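INTERNAL AUDIT FORM
Audit reference: QA-55
Scope: verify that the stored structure record matches its stored sequence.
Auditor: D.O.
Record contents follow.
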Amino acid sequence: MPSSFPRSRPGPLLLPAGPAAALVLAVLVGSWGLLLLAPGSAAAQQAAPADTVASDPPVPQVFDWHLERVLPAQAVWGQALDTAYARDILSWTTEPDFTNPLVDHLPLADGVPTPADHFGYAIGRPGILHTTAELHGWYEALAEASPRVEMSFLGESEEGRPFALVKVGSEENLARLDEIRAAYHRLTEPRETSEEEMEALIEDLPAIYMVFSGLHSPETGHPEVTAELAYRLAVSEQPMLREIREGAILFLMPVTDPDGRDRVVEWYRLHDQDQAYTSDDRVPGPPFWGQYIRHDNNRDGLQLTLALSRQVVALFEEWKYPIALDLHESVPFLYVSTGTGPYNPNIDPITRHEWQWIAHHEVSQLTALGMPGVWTHDFFDGWNPGYMVFALNNRNAIGRFYETYGNSVPATQERTVGSNRTSVEWFRANPPWSEVTWSLRNNVNYAQSGVLHSMHLIARNRDEVLRNYWRKNRNAVRRGVEEPPHAWVVPARQARRADVGHMLNLLLDHGVELHVAGEAFTPEDWEEAGVPPAAADVANGLEVAPGDYVLRADQPYGNFLRNLMERQEFPANAPRPYDDVAWTFPLLHNVTTRAVNDPAILEVSMEAVEGPVHLPGRIHGDADGAEWWAIRHDASAHALEARWALGTDVPVYTSRDPIPEWDGASEGGGEGAGPAFARGAWLIPGDALPAEELEAWVEERGLEARALAARDVEGLDRHLQTLPRIALLHSWRNTQDDGAVRWTLDSMEIPYTYLPEDRLAEGGLRDRFDVILFPDQGRNATARQIFEGLDPADGPLAWEPHPDYPALGAHSRTHDMTGGMGYEGLMALRDFVMSGGTLLALGSAATLPVEFAMARGVSLRSPGGLFSPGSIVEVETDGGLHPITWGYEEAFPAFDRFGPYLSVSGDRSDDVALRFAPADRVFMSGLVEGPGQLARQPAVVSLALGEGRLVLYGVRVLHRNQTRGSFALAWNAILNWDRLEPVEGGDEDETSR
């Protein structure tokens, strides 16, 4: 019998085959009783384990512990079983404890192919992983043969691979899918569906249970798991599975990141990773998963950068299903998510308790089946709503995840489990073993068993799950009526119109309801709510004006809206957070919004916004007589895109002087023609851009323009912008953050060269580039790690196109990924700057020039007591003297995630372009322990080096496509790359923009 205490033992040996030792076998089948086999059928059910390797490997791949077990040809419920398939299951399972009567057999159904019929072998065979197309082909064959399976293709990935949706359920339930979808939409609209109507709806409404597989591409096991799961659920007449089909429908996304899946599978095939029997046998890589993002594709749930994120949200909005499970691999043997907290307070308390209810059921059921190492309450906190599966939690449904013990490579391996996972705890009564021989089939057994028990719980309790689903939507609406804030107002007339539009359209993409005010409204409690005076350019003051946008809290997604609009305060005494702790949309976009605590806002006349939001720009002054145009870009995230849209044929100058206010009284002026523009405004000759073209450009880009006479620009210090030749430098050890930057540049159609680190040594950088952008290299990455790159002991390791593996060699190429940039590459970077180039080093990439003495007078700090794990902080400019900060207010939000924290010597103080605010103001959202360690310290340093410029960013300006309000700290440096020195002196009365 399996022990309930920690076990430590070596993996099983490969034993010689032997005859059956018993002719009668009692087989426990779940909780449904015993099956007794007649002696005469036993010998016929014996089969030798499949031979999957050409010679004896150092770690067994086939196991003989089961050979004396007699395999039945027929189940107790009367269904034929595939004994050869069952023997393969057992042969690839390394211990009897790692399987159970739910998954140690395979039922047969007339006319329906098994996975072995389709692929030629059972699921979980050592050495085998399937590509996206191979898996989709299997589901198409299954759907064609079984009336209990439907398969359809959805949208496409960035590289053109389709997302798929597989539905498995009873024939009766699949026949009424349109009715079920309509019922779910009614169920999630409590303003229209009464409690009585809800009860009638759920009387015979099956629970749709969504499973996502293959989000993180090197976590390779679960696309194999779900391939067998779909078949088993479709054909099995086992009473438990039949009950699942009657009360639930399985929705399945077989591969959530199809681009990454194919890249990883082909990489493993190329490098014979089916024979990686230890971790030392594994090769690094591949360097890319999806088109842009690696592991952070599970951190894209709020910004919706990726096709997969948009597909997940669109699928939920289409079906509004009540529960989803995201399958991952990392820790032994099966971790069932609940997390340690602090849970996000804007997730309904019902959901937070449902997490516990379901998890403890799964843990107890698998433990009862004798499977060790199934546990919960760890590995995650439940705070950040940006994970993919939070698409459900944010919308009043239930989102959860598993972590199983995957090898990534398909070979069976000997593994050692850390002591932090093997201790007996209240949440881990039967922990994993400290040493284990682990196979892909073990992974299949664990994950499939967990999903089946989870679905069984939901199917049996579908009425309560669906009732609570309606209640959570009702609770959100009620909260918006009863609890302030009751709404958020977004003034239509404010700076950064394109950024306002982006934020509002992103909310619409999320399914949040948006309205536009039809009448003026002055709340009674602006002052009581602590709302500061309106910015000077917001003409309507504290009044809600017609045309302003209103985000009502009394909607089903009201809690989600609160999560996005309010400031976060991560408890200081909580366990250390799992990821970023702040995501406040108005702060990250650097736009003006106002919370309204007066419930009368809900009575204001307003209309729902259905289509995309566009806030057009405007022109001040007499456009017909303009000799020059002044453009105020307001440090918009869209400024670089707007400038590049003009191209090189239109000369654009940057004014290094402010443009004074002009009342239009002098000759050539128009009424109200002269708002003041601060340093950094763009100047365009009138004859270079006709009025009608300028007007169209300004309106489309949401910019402020002012018509000027020639005399208005006389004496202004200005320089002609030269659109730079940009290189985006990437290392081979970490392409995560540069992928987010690539997406940003690509989406804005900004041309650049994607430059691998090993090409630096070729030299001649200054002949080819004006600006080199070096993105963050990962949290806490050191200069030495960045410099050394991948270990040469693993090389040579090419990343090049391959005729047999079309997914490889994408984005960048090299003959050898290992060895880093080398001293020649490092010197080439220095020579690039010395000869007039501009190097922008973001985040941890800034440690390289600092630690290798390129940035003399600048050092790295390790501030004791400071803990800022992805928080929004306040920063301050130098009074508008540095071009990098032009267009920003004196103080504005930025994002800090563990630095790097910079220090400058006294003679370098003028090179500090941006500092953290004083200690009493530096925290804005998230968590900042020890704020005094940030106070007034450098956040961005810009210093001359030879004829060029080196800019070091301690704050995260291009983080995950989320920190859009900080984008212009990079854009300003790019557009002014050849004149980044600060201006001398300054006017303290100068307006901020």
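Auditor finding: record pair retrieved intact. Confidence is low (pLDDT under 50) at residues 1-54, 533-541, 664-672, 987-993.
Action required: none
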